[in-house]
Amino acid sequence: MKIPLTKLFLSIACVLLYGGTSSFSQEKSDPAAEAKIEDLIRKMTLEEKIGMIHANSSFTSTGVPRLGVPELTTSDGPHGVRPEHGRDWVLDNKGNDSSTYLPTGITLASTWNPELGYAFGAVLGSEAKYRGKDVILGPGINIIRTPLNGRNFEYMSEDPYLISKMVVGYIKGVQDQGISASLKHFMGNNQEIRRDGINVEMSERALREIYLPGFKAAVIEGEVNTVMGSYNKLRGEYCTYNDYLINKILKGEWGFRGLVMSDWGAIHSTKEALLGGADLEMGTDLSMLPNPDYNKFYFADPALKMVRSGEVSEKVIDDKVRRILRIMFKTHMFDKRTPGELATKEHAAVAKKVAEEGIILLQNKKNILPVSKMVKTIAVIGANANRENAMGGGSSQVRPPYEVTLLAGLQNLAGSDAGIRFEQGYTIARNAKADPSLIRKAVDAAKHADIAIVAGGWIHGYDYSKWDDNAYDAEGFDKPSMEMPFGQDELITAVARANPNTIVVLYGGGPIDMSAWVNKVKGIIQAGYPGMEGGSALAEIILGKVNPSGKLTVTFPKKLQDSPAHKLGEYPGDSVNVHYNEDIFVGYRYFDTYKVKPQFAFGHGLSYTTFEYGKLSAATVNGDTFVRLNVKNTGTMAGAEIVQIYVHDKKASLKRPEKELKSFSKIFLAPGEVKELIFKLDKEAFSFFDSKQMEWVLEPGGFEILAGSSSVDIRSKVEIRL
Ligand code: BGC
To answer: What is the pTM assigned to this prediction?
Structure first.
């Protein structure tokens, strides 16, 4: 018997309403812990309280040994536990600090698989625990506003909904291990240029619709324990102690009960910062090295003086101490933690799985991939093919026990008699140009091989001591342009001319200008930064052992000027301000609405199999809309499809994006298999933020619900009226 749609949805609505939904437990409290916290605060001297709210070494803040309160120990970072820098920033080079190097944030998000977010977080949490850390300084979730931001590789997406879904799993994964995650960088840190003080101006609508939702989900659904404020300002006030952001929105509207820490050195005043909602001042004044005096911190002696003089109430300090103690109790810092594990095979398997699902097949003309069994000789070209990335990029560096490069991955999988010849192709060095002799050798290798694989794209620097070498995808820098560095355009063009079966593998945290060669090569793979098992995952995808299933989390423009902030000339701002005048039209919201054709669209990613979408049907029950769709694997290989659900508002009183992502599902299908998918869209999925009324508004009328394989490849539609 076929169940009528409305009946089916009604029963699902009940399950969703009464089971399963996550609670807003930032409001929940543990009465026993709260009583102990109040007792501890009562027993502390003012000096002891002040000790707790500022750093006392590069990564720790002071405890109160007399009362059994331990130091709080933090560690980067978002995709692996950072090597030991001791208390003084000097790399230790002696301890057992080889941690699992997971794929970076953008590659994790490219999996579109929230369960992998959880597995990823669990690895981090377990390893942090083993290494004696209390807080992992991640995830980083700033919106990818410009392709040039040097930290895009650590972040997830241009789309707030996708971020919201991926971040919650990550946080729960970390925190279920009894370790705190630190959500960063709150907020508006969307460029590295002048990050220390640039003032971001954006509309309330952009704030609410684009820049805040990921943070909100992390706080409310993810129940994150700590939030790190960003370096920059918003509307004239530093974000770390921006009254509107921290007191009103984070701690007020969202009911955040955890700890707000500064980014390292992000506090620049005492009273304003104490009252603006920052709880813990971290960092090291580099000018104080090698003997920093932490008593000089704004939240140290100057704060003590202000409380003693009555300028700031002791209650303000108590609240900060309470928040620190709260996360200490929550993460078992007063009792015994379960043991963690470091760099196990299981953790490496998670790193590999994330890489397998996060690597994206962008182009596959004439099904050049997977590489046919008939192929006997492969030319592997490009310095990125045997480059390790883990120790580059700034604070997110990781020292893994090993890192499988693309070249090693191919050699391991194909075997030594596979006929692989490697040529470097280009030299990695700042401002390096095309090298004719390297190109000549690469062309020769390509000519004598059945296929040519060129590994290129962006880089992380390798040597942390040479700051400059970290550039391109690195903290503290933005990329100088979207053009390929080191003369790679010339190299790829020459290789493609020499061998029609050329495949390009791109590393990096986002878009690169491919216009010089995109139509000349058959295959393009976006590897992102795929972690310590990245080379194995890439080799398995290239040789057909794994079917690729990642999709882009950012639009790849044809050229930088097509990207909205650049088109408007609103990057990187002047020496004081940057105006986000593109407003809510970030990423595909801009490209779609203003009909600008991207190189590769948001949500795009190919598979070795094909999927057929059935007809969409929809019904609205108690204000929620349920959408039903069948998807079939019509090819010959098992594979996964990421079905994306977008909403298009047919008529609105405000200009709205052409479409917005409001749900998605990654499904795994055997050849011939069909699955029924049901998506729930609540009121918010159809609403926009009205800055005049200062609230979300749902305007009645017609809406289209679109099911797509990417933001531009819509396979099925249904219209509803609300
Ligand atoms: C970065 C943070 C990082 C901190 C500690 C800062 O420079 O912006 O992301 O967690 O340093 O290393």
So the answer is: 0.96
